[in-house]
Recover the amino acids of this structure.
């Protein structure tokens, strides 16, 4: 095979530090859009991205050139910086995360 092909769907979940309710309704759509853009910039397109007041769920197609840990690092770092730029002082994500692969047949839009 002369080319490399991958189709790895990852369900990523991470929370705000101490599960603080920092993600307000007013900022939620923009935060979700920002995360989608960050994923796209790392060749890991979002399939579905959503957040609630204290955590995010992201389903994305993992890039063939970036490991999951790098994608998580970029998403959390960039979105944390963005939240602070929106005036949400003291915002932080928790250190950990959950990342689970799912099969194409398990995904129901």
């Amino acid at each position: 095979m002369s080319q490399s092909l991958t189709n790895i769907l990852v369900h990523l979940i991470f929370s705000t530090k101490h599960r603080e309710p920092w993600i307000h309704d007013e900022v939620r759509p923009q935060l979700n859009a920002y995360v989608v853009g960050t994923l796209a910039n790392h060749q890991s397109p979002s399939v579905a991205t959503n957040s609630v007041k204290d955590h995010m769920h992201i389903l994305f197609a993992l890039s063939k050139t970036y490991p999951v840990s790098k994608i998580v690092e970029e998403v959390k770092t960039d979105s944390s910086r963005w939240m602070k730029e929106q005036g949400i002082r003291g915002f932080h994500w928790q250190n950990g995360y959950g990342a689970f692969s799912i099969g194409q047949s398990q995904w129901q839009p």
Notes: The beta strands are 9-15, 46-52, 55-61, 98-102. The two ends are 31 Å apart (CA to CA).
